[in-house]
Amino acid sequence: MNAVNHKHRMVFAILNILFLAVSINAFAQDVESRVLPVSQPAVSLGNGGTCPFDAPIILSQTPNQVNGIFADADCAACGTGAQAVAENFSLGGATDIGQIVMYSGYFPGDLFPTPADPWNVTFHADAGGLPGADLNTQTVVPVGVLTGVTLFGVSEIEYTFTLAPFNLPAGTYWVEITTNSAGNADQAFWEVGDPDTVGNGIDGTAFATAVPGVAWNFTAAQDFAVTLCGPADMLPDPPAVPTLSQTGLTIMVLLLLLGAAVAVRRYN
Description:
Layout: H1 2-29, E1 57-61, E2 63-70, E3 84-91, E4 95-107, E5 119-126, E6 131-140, E7 143-151, E8 154-168, E9 171-179, E10 187-193, E11 201-208, E12 217-219, E13 223-224, E14 226-229, H2 246-267
Antiparallel strand pairs: 1-14, 2-10, 3-9, 3-11, 4-8, 4-10, 4-14, 5-6, 5-9, 7-8, 10-13, 11-12
């Protein structure tokens, strides 16, 4: 009987170990993959927060060099080999979306791709505080510029995305921005930033361990470095260039002829 009980205890102990291992693995998959496991003190850089061509600013969260969250479908540094991330914001009324400026880098080797990798930009509806239904997805090859800032040992990249303009009604939304760095030994990250200065930002971000993102998880007290802009065609028309009327043009020609006649008489 003791041998049987001992066997049962052994089986029960093994099952407990297996359950614990599975639980730890599942928990690990729900942990956000970051460049720095522990954030360093914030460094105020003062850049970012503006839109190309002075287009309307919808969301303005400047980079602060605190951390970078991997946003890559080919992410060796991520527990599941991939990670999608998203930023949330709100709109008080119908708004046209046309451009995005975000801050990134390639970790750990600083292998800035030339030409730039394509990125997938997806706007989601809000579903209980997490990204929900896809509303608009576009694949964009952004214009990347090195800012001259070094963070986490790599170069900070300012990416400008020009989107096919679309309209969002009033409400709460998420924007997911993720690339696929396949063929590059590095993985791309989205730099975190300061809170929004326009009034449309919402605290927190989201991450998923698959690309495109599914089964999203929430990260509090964190924002991404991103500026959301209206389309360039929303800019006011340039001031009209003054033109001469037919009468004015006739008078100018007569004056030129008169001036020419005076000049001829003077030199004859």
